[in-house]
Amino acid sequence: MRCDTGGRTAGGPGRPARYAARPLLVLAAALLALLPASAPVPVPEPRTAPARLRIATWNMCGVEQWNCGGTGEADRKVRALTELVTEDGADVVLLQEVCDRDLADARQALGPGWDTAFRGYAHRSADGRFAPVGCGAHRGRAGIAVLASAPLSRVGTVDAQQPEVGLHRGALCATVFEPGVRVCGAHLSLPGSDRAHPRWELGDDQLAALVDAAGDRTVFGGDLNSTPPTASNARAWIWPDGAFGRYRECDQQGPDGRTGRPTLASGGKIDYLFTDLPRSGCSVRDTSASDHLALIMEVETGRGSGVQP
Fold this sequence. Notes:
The protein contains 5 helices and 17 strands. It is of the alpha+beta class.
């Protein structure tokens, strides 16, 4: 709040405040001169994007009560996450069902220079109250995250319809490297997620919002909770044309391709990475620490935008 005193002080009616304050300013300057000089606070400099950038997405299955109790303890998941970097060369990892303490441990293990952004899941009750989702075993909150080997900027979420009553997942975006590469990681709602309206389909709105949030030099995807839009998928209608049209998916073979290798341990593909950057590689990796496999895409950052067939 700004307060205007009319240029006067309480001790001298009619005297401009700048004259009354001058002795105090002189005293303050003298005192400051006696203090030791402090080093400027370092500001992280943006890193130049490598010519080839590897981006991964992985649902860590870290929430014990979501049938994840048998997929590995925290140390095993943290080790698997760091191995996506040290063994598979991922520069950025989009994460779903990650515990914030596991994320912090992985960042510490990777050393200086790594950055993270996190958004927690929340249950919305019938009276409109939100409650966070815990991972169990003192591992903190569960949510979605971005782990990157360079400082993240312009971090934000994607606005999309969420359950009136039920679990709010969401999408998290950030810019990394220079020239900026935008990444967006999402975890979309399953059918029946809205307990107040169990027949409502939210996936179409959420997918459309995710694709609309993307742009040039963008990589986006995550656990989209839908198989590809093929004839065998009864929910194929939820997919917007831009996903496999303006953009290309990591495992997409040709402009008309709509399939890919399974990303679930039980079979089926529900994890995706899309981009308008030229793709130079795509791999699927079983971390043995989740019911999801990790998907890793390599893109070329120096050729400008433009999809590859």
